[in-house]
Design brief:
heterotrimer, A: mainly alpha, MetI-like fold, 12 helices, 77% helix, C: alpha+beta, Rossmann fold, OB fold (Dihydrolipoamide Acetyltransferase, E2P), 6-stranded mixed beta sheet, 5-stranded antiparallel beta sheet, 18 strands
Chain lengths: 263, 295, 345
């Protein structure tokens, strides 16, 4: 865009140096945790004087942390399993209805992503408390699903818009009912978008902390909740190990998804 | 123009629409159950006393408390501070990315978006480590002689602000970058051919045309930040108490469901007010847009 | 397998103020190949989609054989449809695509496979059963779409401009193939196209549509030689519709009082080739073009109107010496002169 000004070298250098600084700012916190996780001491010194895997051992050896991990993984899977099919059906519905109906449905389904998490958290807490469901897996699951549905829709709506609806008509003309048309024609062709939506729903649940803090408790505490409690109390280097593992997994997953999309 | 429609066929059309509508119902039900119902419950709870009767006592208590108003002020300070930082940092960044070659820009954008994928707790922890008295930033500052003593950069307002800016910057960047990318390169060339300097072109062409994106980014920053909980909780050290923290404290420490709900309503009202203000501002700006050539 | 006649009775479809089908009625005989011909927006595709069940009419009836299918769901109508973009399932190979309707009808696997392979042979695609859809050429995809639409032996076939994406040579081959397939199977077929040549080549009857109405329903010959409206005349080819005053009968009798249509290829340069009841038109040559098999002359009649005259090269002796500005008389026999009724339908 600025090729019309090739001679403003000083401005260019300033701009790009500024960018480098800002980008370092963005990436630094995530990066700095990695070497720390391998530090032998618990003093959070940087750079670490000696290296060891003790914090990883602590993490995998602790019953509490492992319970948290298990809970988070189960919740993540359940969230994806529930949110993605519901999201797909809703997106098909919006695609076919069009007009005001679609806009209204979209508004309602995307609302949870705009409402402050703290409000959803305490509101859900009140609702569940009335039913004595606070602290149950079900309570947290419902909270996570309601956050994952908008995420799934954001991925699936454009994918459906690109889809060749003629094929559904062809399938219907050949005798398929709606269940077969959706299951046998739409779903296989939306494979990649469905995979993206599933991963995003899984990550949304895995990363979710605010609702978990209020609604999950005891045995059903999620990993983020445990991390939060630990962060508030003291700075445990075990968290560095968890953070590094987390970042590594997310980077790998995002790479896989991006590479599959390119092919 | 009246067309006679066969009622049976019209009924079939309605039935088909109902079928498609029903596909949304499960998702709508869950959102209703886990998002709409909780909000309604909060409203209801705000009018309930501990004894279970309907009262406005909670409102009296909360609205007359100085803590409430200082929490409101803190919330606004954090949001406005984050917004200012995002605009100052994000606009030049968007400009740089938008003027880069497409492949480079895509790569850099992916890089910028990467923090979004990492857990907020991971990032907050990273800032704790960096901003501590013995942390990396202070080490660099005292080591290079820029400051004599380590600065208190965390467990206070500054640390919270840094954490929030770090979270929101990529989200602010997206619409601004999109708006700048959409600017027709020929407009800049035309300005140059008419004699504009780089500074003038940025001021009179690029920024005005990106205003829509900056506006959208600002709405996003504001709406998200007034509800922020994790960042002030971890990086604020108990000294930074926006509305969200007050809500949590009222609920967990004092078990005061009524007051917590009132504070929640306040948060909702604040959000609605901001939304309305932005919509009004957008309408004003759009009306003003057919503007002047000199800036 | 006996195929079914189709009755379309007073079908109306409007989208807001826009009337797509204006009280359309049509009877298609069992086993007939009928083409709906018209420009875009004429309603031909809308009518086809109404028969298929994807467009719900506002009023009217659609009857297949003796069954009223107006309110029947599209997946229960048992009609074979070939879509304009083929709508093949990209996540299945050729064989799976063709077996699909049989699979839905719970045909035993072995039988379904055999029938699919036989149908592929019928459309001359044997050996391609395991191929992926993406690896096929346009013509091959066309045939797969055909095979998939006939494998379950429907009583009626609908085709929505199936050849529009193919190049000219392939199109002509496929026109022949589709017609041959129709004749072999004897299925009642409704074919939609905007190409008048295609309609003339393939059909038993043609329904010319415009603005949601059928302007004329007739055999290709009569549509071409005896168009009932100006629109039909001009849509079918260069119509040369002239005012009655520009035409002189050779034997001197009174000319008609209505507008006359004389197709460009009906003209002769030699008066001896037309009968005494033929007509003559005089004018000045504006332009001429040699097109290999014929000459195309643009003649400005004395009344001011321009007509196109097409003379086969074999009979065009002397054309090369003609120059712009030359006076010229052209002749046509009475049979080739057609009066267009004043009031259009």
């Amino acid at each position: 865009m600025l090729e019309a000004y090739p001679d403003n070298k000083l401005a260019r250098i300033l701009l790009w140096s500024f960018c480098a600084i800002v980008m370092a700012f963005l990436i630094l916190p995530t990066l700095v945790v990695v070497p720390l996780s391998f530090s032998a001491s618990n003093l959070l010194e940087f750079p670490p004087r000696a290296y060891s895997l003790r914090w990883y051992e602590t993490f995998f050896g602790s019953a509490t942390w492992m319970a948290g991990l298990r809970t988070s993984l189960i919740l993540g899977t359940l969230t994806a399993v529930v949110a993605v099919p519901l999201g797909l059906l809703a997106c098909i519905s919006m695609n076919r209805l069009g007009g005001k109906a679609a806009v209204t449905i979209q508004g309602i389904l995307l609302a949870p992503s705009i409402v402050p998490g703290i409000l959803l958290a305490i509101g859900l807490f009140f609702v569940l408390a009335a039913q004595r469901l606070v602290g149950t897996l079900f309570g947290v699951l419902v909270g996570h699903v309601v956050l994952a549905i908008p995420v799934a829709c954001i991925v699936l709506l454009p994918a459906l818009a690109r889809f060749d609806w003629n094929q559904v008509q062809a399938a219907r003309s050949l005798g398929a009912n709606w269940a077969r048309a959706i299951g046998g024609i739409i779903v296989p062709q939306l494979r990649i978008s469905l995979l993206s939506a599933t991963l995003m729903a899984f990550l949304t649940s895995l990363d979710e902390s605010v609702i978990s803090i209020f609604v999950a408790s005891g045995q059903n505490s999620t990993l983020p909740k445990l991390m939060f409690l630990s962060l508030r109390d003291q700075i445990d280097p075990t968290i560095a190990a968890i953070s590094t593992l987390w970042t590594a997994i997310v980077v790998v997953v995002v790479l896989i998804v991006t590479l599959r999309q390119k092919s | 123009m009246t067309v006679a429609v066969d009622p049976a066929l019209a009924a079939d059309a309605r039935r088909e629409r109902r079928f498609f509508l029903s596909l949304s119902l499960p998702a709508l039900f869950i959102v209703g159950l886990a998002a709409i119902l909780p909000i309604v419950w909060i409203i209801r709870q705000s009018f309930l006393s501990t004894g279970g009767e309907y009262t406005v006592g909670n409102y009296e208590k909360v609205l007359s408390s100085g803590l409430t108003w200082s929490a409101l002020v803190t919330t606004l300070e954090l949001s406005l501070g984050t917004l200012a930082a995002c605009i100052l940092l994000g606009t030049p960044l968007a400009l740089a990315l938008a003027s880069a070659r497409p492949r480079v820009a895509n790569l850099l954008m992916a890089f910028v978006m990467l923090p979004l994928w990492t857990s907020i707790l991971v990032r907050t922890y990273g800032w704790l480590v960096l901003l501590r008295r013995e942390g990396l930033v202070n080490a660099a500052l005292t080591g290079s002689g820029l400051t004599a003593e380590p600065l208190p950069l965390v467990y206070n307002f500054t640390g919270t602000l840094i954490g929030m800016v770090h979270y929101m910057l990529p989200l602010f960047l997206l619409p601004v970058y999109a708006a700048m990318r959409d600017i027709d390169a020929n407009l800049v060339r035309a300005s140059a051919s008419m004699g504009a300097t780089l500074g003038q072109v940025i001021r009179t062409v690029i920024l005005p045309l990106s205003a829509g994106g900056i506006f959208s980014g600002s709405i996003i920053v504001f709406i998200y930040t007034i509800g922020f909980f994790i960042t002030p909780a971890v990086l604020g050290g108990g000294k930074v108490n926006p509305l969200s923290i007050r809500i949590e404290r009222t609920l967990s420490t004092f078990q005061d469901w009524g007051s917590a709900s009132v504070l929640g309503i306040l948060l909702l009202i604040l959000m609605a007010l901001i939304g309305v203000m932005f919509l009004a501002a957008r309408r004003l700006i759009a009306g003003h847009q057919v503007g002047t050539a000199h800036a | 397998m006996k195929s079914l006649p189709i009755t379309i009775d007073s079908v109306r479809k409007a989208y807001g103020c826009y009337v797509a089908l204006d009280d359309v009625s049509l009877d298609v005989c069992a086993g007939e190949f009928l083409t709906l011909l018209g420009p875009s927006g004429s309603g031909k595709t809308t009518l086809l989609m109404a028969l298929a069940g994807f467009v719900r009419p506002d009023s009217g009836r659609l009857v297949l054989g003796d069954r009223d299918i107006t309110r029947l769901a599209p997946n229960k109508r048992d009609i074979g449809i070939v879509f304009q973009n083929y709508a093949l399932f990209p996540h299945m190979n050729v064989l799976a695509n063709v077996e699909y309707p049989l699979m839905l009808r719970k045909t035993p696997k072995a039988e379904a496979r055999q029938r699919a392979l036989d149908t592929l042979a019928r459309v001359k695609l044997e050996g391609l059963a395991e191929r992926n859809i993406a690896a096929l050429s346009g013509g091959q995809r066309q045939r797969v779409a055909l095979a998939r639409a006939i494998v379950f032996e429907p009583r009626v076939m609908l085709m929505d401009e199936p050849l529009s994406a193919l190049d000219r040579n392939l199109r002509e081959t496929m026109q022949y193939e589709i017609r041959r397939l129709h004749d072999d199977l004897g299925i009642t077929t409704i074919y939609v196209t905007h190409d008048q040549r295609e309609a003339l080549t393939m059909s038993d009857r043609v329904a010319v549509m415009n603005s949601g109405r059928i302007q004329q329903l007739d055999t290709p010959q009569r549509i071409y030689d005896r168009p009932s409206t100006r629109f039909v005349a001009e849509f079918m080819g260069e119509a040369n519709i002239v005012a009655p005053g520009a035409v002189r009968r050779i034997d001197g009798a009174n000319a008609s009082r209505e507008a006359l249509m004389i197709r460009a290829e009906s003209f002769h340069l030699d008066a001896k080739l037309v009968g005494r009841d033929g007509v003559a038109l005089e004018g000045t040559l504006r332009a001429k073009a040699f097109r290999g098999e014929n000459w195309l002359l643009t003649l400005a009649l004395d009344g001011g109107q321009e007509i196109l005259v097409c003379i086969p090269s074999a009979l065009a002796g002397g054309c090369s010496e003609l120059a712009a500005g030359h006076r010229l008389t052209v002749y046509a026999s009475a049979a080739k002169v057609h009066a267009i009724p004043r009031v259009t339908a």
